[in-house]
Amino acid sequence: MMKQAKELQSKMAEMQAEIEQLTRDGTAGAGLVTVTINGKGEMRAVSVDPSLMKPDEKEILEDLIVAAHADAKAKMEEALQEKMKDMTGGLPLPPGMKF
């Protein structure tokens, strides 16, 4: 039993390291704004199409950045769930247990 617990702990540490290296892009405005986040949810890059660089479109740009971040976050959560399924052999995690 202790051996299995140590193996699981080792696998969890490996997976956390892998998660930190994952990145996902989220887009908004038909690709005019792209946000890249890592597995920790930290924003790593923002790309904005030059056509949005107009003073009168400031609010639109701000909204698109927020929407692109939400899209990236949703994609990352989906990727993390898949990784967890692979690690746990398809067993679901208890509710509220997240990584």
TrEMBL record:
<keyword id="KW-0238">DNA-binding</keyword>
<dbReference type="GO" id="GO:0003677">
    <property type="term" value="F:DNA binding"/>
</dbReference>
<dbReference type="InterPro" id="IPR036894">
    <property type="entry name" value="YbaB-like_sf"/>
</dbReference>
<dbReference type="Pfam" id="PF02575">
    <property type="entry name" value="YbaB_DNA_bd"/>
</dbReference>
<dbReference type="GO" id="GO:0005829">
    <property type="term" value="C:cytosol"/>
</dbReference>
<protein>
    <recommendedName>
        <fullName>Nucleoid-associated protein BXY53_2659</fullName>
    </recommendedName>
</protein>
<dbReference type="GO" id="GO:0043590">
    <property type="term" value="C:bacterial nucleoid"/>
</dbReference>
<comment type="function">
    <text>Binds to DNA and alters its conformation. May be involved in regulation of gene expression, nucleoid organization and DNA protection.</text>
</comment>
<dbReference type="InterPro" id="IPR004401">
    <property type="entry name" value="YbaB/EbfC"/>
</dbReference>
<comment type="similarity">
    <text>Belongs to the YbaB/EbfC family.</text>
</comment>
<keyword id="KW-0963">Cytoplasm</keyword>
<comment type="subunit">
    <text>Homodimer.</text>
</comment>
